[in-house]
Amino acid sequence: MSSKIKIVTHSEKGRCILAANGIKKDEEILREKPFVATQFAWNKESKYLCCSNCMYPLETAQDNVRRLTFDNTIMLPFPECDKINLQNVVKCENCDDLYCSQSCLENEKMNNHEFYCNQLLPNGRFNEIYEVWKRCHYPPETCSILMIIKLFALIKKKPMETVEKLNEFCNRSVNEDLMLAHKMLGDSYKSQISELQETMKKAFADDTEFERYLTDDGFISLLAIIGTNSQGIGTSSFADYVKSISELQLSEEKRSEIDDFIDSIYTRLNETVGEFLNSEGSGLYSIQSKINHSCNPNSEIIFPDSNSLLQVIALRDIKQNEEITISYLDECQLSRSRHSRQKYLQENYIFECFCEKCESQVNDADLTSDEGENYDDDDDNMDTD
Ligand SMILES: [Zn+2]
Ligand SMILES: [Zn+2]
Ligand SMILES: [Zn+2]
């Protein structure tokens, strides 16, 4: 673990991560690979290409925009900014899963790829689970059945170590777990959960080590652990390209030309795929999952290598023993009223936020709740669509 942090248990907040020493703005606090990570089921199904181990994009930025806009004539200027390296791509010899490198393939094999290799395809042992899942959980996705399958593969291979790691993730009551499962799967969640659970019981009838996760309580609890602890991972070769372009030294005229060009590509992408630009998935990170939320966080999460390797960076100077915080809300949600933020956090993570920003706005609640309610209505509509 990074020597810059320490984990302590707080009487009210539970586990917290504190700065072991002073940390400077922009300094790396932590770098962590996921314990398990997967691309979302529909994202994979829709041929968003990425490494099956680390989610590194597996198409050039040019191919990426050509595919998403259905236009094979697009030529990206400054091809040197299209930096995706496809030279080491390898394929599993038994299924079609692609990997960015031999080491990602080896890593996946070490994590028991064999367990699900070919098994999600038609006629595979887990195909029915996969199909049931896709029926219950349309995009936008927040978690994936592939995560549970990968976790089961790990439990098969390294039972003690995996169960111990899994138990470290936040535990809640059955009632809270039910609420979270509801949020995850939507209004018809009860029938969906039991259908999924029954299908899984059938598929894993001979695997006694999974029994505890397939009971009524165990299954909901597993879904809730994944739902509340997983960190979204999005990778995109076009986004990487745009970032490289922004770092080029260009004349004002050239800069404005390229900015217009990039805007025009984003407009076209918006017409064809809307928000679904990236290879998307999620991962469970042992240490990062213990970092608490604040509506005025002192740190942020980035993915420096365009894959699932996560980095926590200080947004400002942090004092020794100060708690490290990140935001579980995106920028848009953070700008909403205290009431709206609290509602979202309560529904998705089951906690009340007592951060300094929320505390300082305690009396604002009535002033801004109208605006908050409107936003919340929008949210609810999106969730049930
Ligand atoms: Zn990889
Ligand atoms: Zn395979
Ligand atoms: Zn707050």
TrEMBL record:
Source species, domain of life: Eukaryota
The keyword Transcription belongs to this UniProt entry's keyword annotation: no
Cited InterPro entries: SET_dom, SET_dom_sf
Positions of region (Disordered): 366-385
GO BP, one annotated term: methylation
Acidic residues bias locations: 367-385
Keyword Transmembrane tagged: no
Pfam families: SET
Residues passing through the membrane, by range: none
Keywords: Methyltransferase, S-adenosyl-L-methionine, Transferase
MF GO annotations: histone H4K20 methyltransferase activity
Record-annotated SET domain positions: 3-329
Protein name as annotated: SET domain-containing protein
Organism for this UniProt entry: Polypedilum vanderplanki
